[in-house]
Amino acid sequence: MNNISAEELHAAADACGVLSQVFLAGNVDEYLTVVGANPTGFTTLFPRCAQALTGADEELVGGEILQAQIEYARLLCNGCAEALHPFESVYLGADHLLMQEPRDQVVDLYAEYGFAASTEPHLPEDHISFELAFLQLLAFRSANGDPQAQALMARFANEHLLRWLPAFCDDLKDAAETNFWLDCADMLRGVIRVL
Q1: Inter-residue contact 155 to 1 (CB < 8 Å)
Q2: DSSP letter for each residue of the chain
Q3: Closest Cα partner for 103 from 115, 87, 118?
Q4: I want to staple 149 with a disulfide (CB 3.0 to 4.6 A). Which of 48, 100, 139, 141 is the partner?
Q5: CB neighbours of 95 closer than 8 A, spacing ≥ 6?
Q6: Angstrom distances, CA of residue 177 to CA of 69, 71, 171, 180
Q7: Does 34 have pLDDT greater than 70?
Q8: CB atoms within 10 A of CB 177
């Protein structure tokens, strides 16, 4: 793992928090509104979206949000043939199915640090949103000097995240059509670069 500054770890933790919620529930409008209230943060986290929406009227903004929400359903709710599968097991498991050994390994790592993935909405623990929430916790605590969090973050990155998230980013970038999801792929890549 790189020698990461506390500032970089805090920024990575913030990005993980946003991405975790977006990938979990597709809260596009909430995050565009929250991040949009901070123009610098909005431009930094969602540069394509910010450029497309700068000076835009409310109808265009609403249309962009609606398109991003539709794309969430198409890409991440697994109801379409071209849907992505945001689960580590699908990328790394021998049979590329859910609930395989990579998921079990992630659950063991979570337990090692006392982290429990949410039981709602009934998703396997290796869903990208839970892994990003765990990384957010580790990055935040690492930035504040917790040596156990630093060691576990390095292990989690090397044994799990860096093995499947780059491929997921490629898949998301290839499949996404809206600025919002292209920005999410770039933001996730930025987090990966920090690791």
Answers
A1: no
A2: -----HHHHHHHHHHHHHHHHHHHH--HHHHHHHHHTSHHHHHHH-HHHHHHHTT--HHHHHHHHHHHHHHHHHHHSS-STT----BHHHHHSTT--SSSHHHHHHHHHHHHHT-----TT---TTBHHHHHHHHHHHHHHHHTT-HHHHHHHHHHIIIIIHHHHHHHHHHHHHH--SHHHHHHHHHHHHHHHH-
A3: 87
A4: 141
A5: none
A6: 12, 8, 12, 9
A7: no
A8: 13
Tell me the one-letter amino acid at 155: R
> Cα–Cα distances in Å, from 36 out to 7, 39, 44, 46?
22, 6, 11, 9
Q: How confident is the model at residue 169 (pLDDT cuts 50, 70, 90)?
A: very high
Query: Residue 153, class by beta-carbon neighbours within 10 Å (0-12 exposed, 13-18 middle, 19+ buried)?
Result: buried
Please give the Cα distance from 179 to 49 (Å, whole number): 5
End-to-end CA distance of the chain: 6
Tokens 């640090």 correspond to 113
Using one digit for the tens of pLDDT, what is the confidence trace for 35-91?
556 555 556 666 766 666 555 555 556 677 788 888 999 999 866 777 899 999 999
> Are 142 and 149 contacting, i.e. CB atoms less than 8 angstroms apart?
yes
Residue 102 CA to residue 159 CA, distance in Å, equals 10
Residues 6+ apart with CB under 8 A from 25: 121
